[in-house]
Every structure is written in structure tokens, then in C-alpha cells.
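Dear H.,

Thanks for agreeing to be a second pair of eyes. The structure we're designing against is below in C-alpha cell form, covering all 443 positions.
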């Protein structure tokens, strides 16, 4: 771990939470430079009532228009006009480091407009359910997918590497046109597997089987129980709107992950209820050049109500009336004083297996692991618990040496995403939760 930014004067958030917002180490460094060198052309603070306020700043961008950054506290809706590829961008992080405190009446019109837009965004209205026409179009597309998958198997797996990824991408494009974007995304990911490694058939077949099962289940969706029907729609890319499953709790943000897919950015934020013990996944989809949305810091405690989408294993949720950050809340250990929130590897795998049994299309599951050791392995890095059970980390994992240096010969508590094969650590507990994205990766 290299040097982290030093706190300036009176940040609205503790420095670890600002670091917990950083999408990567480079963005955090650039924000630190902007803040230290005082590059903001103008900045200020707008009271928003009910102890909320909007921080705003304009940063010069050479010959381009100024980058206009804003953060609504304590709801943490952030936005910037710079059009950068990272979310949040360096201007938003620099704004939090600067923490302009002037609540002047001379705020520019764009800041006032940004305040109103952020207020509306923190109280999202429920999306209307997908129309019957869209569902029927998706059913047609998935029926075509089933026939295409059958053709590939008829020709044999051995022929797939020679054909290349083009047929997969063409089939995925047809699925996207048929309003089944999640199934299309899975097909594009599978395009890279044929011929990639000696065990590629073993990695490909289970995922092809799940796609075939999805196509078959979608055709019989009206005969399924409501929870399973909701899972089928969500697996295709038509998630139902949240229902009556609502939970008020203090939520601990345990990790964020950004995935770029074509011209879109998907942001996953994992929350764990301190009282309820429930996991919640907040999903956001943004165009790559749009830097506007909810951004929750790893390690932050957030108070509010979440509404869960229906399903056999409810996981995806959205805030009902905004989540309020509690920046000064104490952290009594990794689980905020709630020791039941951590598991060893065996218990975590059992939880994931139960979730997959209920929802076979669940790709990623959260894991909060206690008392695990990080160690080098012949193929990279892995975790080991006190019982000797092992979990592999992704190939070419970039934070293994940093975790090993942090732990020494002591066990760690960490949170990550498990895909059934490897665990991708997102955060680690060390005098508070630390987002690994802000660390400099090493080969």
C-alpha cells in the first residue's frame, strides 16, 4: 500500500470514507493533487434543509469547459460534467477533500439546478413493470437462443475455437434487440472461453446449460410460482420492480465493483444490514460518459429503508426514500459489533450453495469471511481459513502482496464476490473497512 492522501481541513467525510469512494488508485491520486494545489476555480456549499447540503466546485479543464462537480450530503448523490471514464471522477473526490464551507447566496445557477436534480434522484419512483409486448419479444429471442445453442452442440464443442467469437456476438446482439440484455451479456462473456485454457469445455458447459435452462423456463414462465417467475425475468434482463419486501436498517457498505460492458457502466454496491443480517445488492447502470448517480463509500454506515425485488432468494434492492450516511458512526469491529455477520469458508460456501439452489441464475454472491489467511499459491493467490479450507483468488490478482503485508501471520476479515470458482476481494477490515480499489495494484 502506498501513501494515501492526507486530510486537509475539516472534510465532511472521514478520509477512509473518501478513499472508499475511489474507483481506483490513479483517480484517488489525481484528486489529491487537485485538492492540494487548489485548482478549483470556484467552490461553495448550498444548504438543502433537513441538515442536507450540496457541495459544488468548478475545476478548469484547459481549453475545455470547466468540470462542474457536486455532491449532495448526506445522501451521497454525486455528479460531474467532465465526462471521464471513472465513477466517481477525480473532481468529485477532490471536492470532498476540499470541503467548501461557504454557504453564500451567490451560488451559480448550475449549482442550484444540480441541487434540485439530486433531490429528485434520491427519491426514485418505482419503474413501471415491463409490458407484455417486451416480455413476448424476449420470449421469442430466448426461443431462438435455445435453437442456436442446440446447433452449437450438434456441431460439437471441438469446432467452437475455430469459429471464433463472431457467431457468439451476433447471437448476443439478437438477444439485446429482443429485450434480453442480461442473457446477451452472458453470451458475450462466453465468447471468450472456447480455446482459452485446457479446461475451457468444463468452464463453458455449465454456463451454456444455465442459458438453455433459462430459455426453457422463460417459455414456461406463467406456470412458475411468482418468486421463480421473477428470477427468470431478471435473469433475462427484465427485472421486476421492488415489491412489499422492505427492510429498515442501518446498512454497512462492504464493497463496490464497476464493470464496463460496451458503452455502459454497471456499478454493484453490496450492503449488509447490521440488525437484520440481510445482504442487499444495489445495481446502477450508466452510460460511460455520464457521471451522475448514487455513490456509497465502502465502510460507510447508511440508515434507511430498502425495497427488495421479488425472487426465491431476494438480493437486489433499491432505496425507498434515500439512504443517509452516518459518517461519525463508530465501528465496533469488522461487523459493527454484530459478530453474527461473518463466516468461515465452509459456512460462506454453504450460504452461496443455498442461494444458487433457490436461484440457479445467480452468478455472483457476497461473502463476508472472518479469520482467513492470504497466501501465495502455484497459480496465484488464495485464502485459507483455520480449518484448512481454501478459496482461490482471481488469476493475476493485484493486491495479494498488500494483503499479505497487512496481515503478516494474523488472520484477516474481508468481503468479496464469489462466482462459484474464484473470490474477488472488494474490501478488508483494518481499523475500519478499506476499499481495495484505492490501493495500488502490484503484478
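And this is the sequence the design step returned. I haven't edited it by hand at all.
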Amino acid at each position: 500500500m502506498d501513501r494515501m492522501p492526507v486530510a486537509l481541513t475539516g472534510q465532511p467525510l472521514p478520509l477512509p470514507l473518501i478513499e472508499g469512494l475511489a474507483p481506483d488508485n490513479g483517480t484517488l491520486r489525481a484528486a489529491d493533487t487537485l485538492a492540494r494545489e487548489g485548482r478549483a476555480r470556484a467552490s461553495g456549499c448550498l444548504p438543502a434543509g433537513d441538515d442536507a447540503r450540496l457541495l459544488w466546485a468548478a475545476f478548469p479543464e484547459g481549453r475545455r469547459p470547466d468540470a462542474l462537480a457536486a455532491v449532495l450530503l448526506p445522501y451521497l448523490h454525486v455528479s460531474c460534467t467532465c465526462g471521464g471514464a471513472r465513477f466517481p471522477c477525480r473532481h468529485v473526490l477532490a471536492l470532498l477533500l476540499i470541503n467548501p464551507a461557504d454557504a453564500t447566496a451567490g451560488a451559480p445557477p448550475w449549482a442550484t439546478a444540480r441541487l434540485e436534480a439530486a433531490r429528485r434522484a434520491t427519491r426514485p419512483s418505482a419503474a413501471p413493470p415491463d409490458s407484455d409486448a417486451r416480455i413476448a419479444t424476449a420470449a421469442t429471442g430466448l426461443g431462438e437462443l435455445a435453437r442456436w445453442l442446440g446447433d452449437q452442440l450438434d456441431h460439437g464443442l471441438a469446432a467452437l475455437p475455430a469459429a471464433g467469437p463472431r457467431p457468439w456476438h451476433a447471437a448476443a446482439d439478437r438477444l439485446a434487440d429482443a429485450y434480453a440484455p442480461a442473457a446477451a451479456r452472458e453470451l458475450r462473456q462466453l465468447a471468450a472461453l472456447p480455446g482459452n485454457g485446457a479446461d475451457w469445455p468444463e468452464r463453458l458447459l455449465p454456463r451454456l446449460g444455465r442459458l438453455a435452462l433459462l430459455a426453457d423456463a422463460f417459455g414456461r414462465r406463467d406456470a412458475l410460482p411468482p418468486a421463480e417467475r421473477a428470477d427468470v425475468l431478471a435473469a433475462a434482463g427484465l427485472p421486476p420492480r421492488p415489491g412489499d419486501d422492505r427492510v429498515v436498517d442501518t446498512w454497512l457498505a462492504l464493497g463496490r465493483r464497476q464493470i464496463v460492458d460496451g458503452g455502459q457502466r454497471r456499478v454493484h454496491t453490496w450492503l449488509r444490514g447490521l440488525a437484520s443480517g440481510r445482504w442487499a445488492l444495489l445495481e446502477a447502470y450508466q452510460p460511460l460518459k455520464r457521471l451522475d448517480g448514487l455513490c456509497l463509500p465502502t465502510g460507510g454506515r447508511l440508515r434507511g429503508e430498502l425495497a427488495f425485488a421479488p425472487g426465491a432468494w431476494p438480493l437486489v434492492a433499491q432505496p425507498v426514500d434515500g439512504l443517509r450516511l452516518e459518517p461519525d458512526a463508530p465501528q465496533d469491529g469488522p461487523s459493527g459489533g454484530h459478530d453474527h455477520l461473518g463466516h468461515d469458508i465452509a459456512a460462506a460456501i454453504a450460504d452461496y450453495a443455498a442461494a444458487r439452489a433457490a436461484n440457479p441464475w445467480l452468478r455472483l454472491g457476497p461473502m463476508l469471511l472472518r479469520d482467513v489467511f492470504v497466501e501465495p499459491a502455484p497459480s496465484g493467490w488464495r485464502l485459507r481459513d483455520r480449518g484448512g479450507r481454501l478459496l482461490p483468488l482471481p488469476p493475476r490478482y493485484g493486491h495479494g502482496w498488500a494483503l499479505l503485508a497487512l496481515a503478516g501471520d494474523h488472520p484477516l476479515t474481508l468481503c468479496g464476490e464469489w462466482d462459484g470458482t474464484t473470490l474477488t476481494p472488494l474490501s478488508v477490515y483494518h481499523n475500519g473497512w478499506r476499499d481495495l480499489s484505492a490501493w495500488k495494484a502490484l503484478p
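Two observations from my side: The CA atoms of residues 146 and 216 lie 8 Å apart. The first strand starts at residue 42 and ends at 49.

Warmly,
E.
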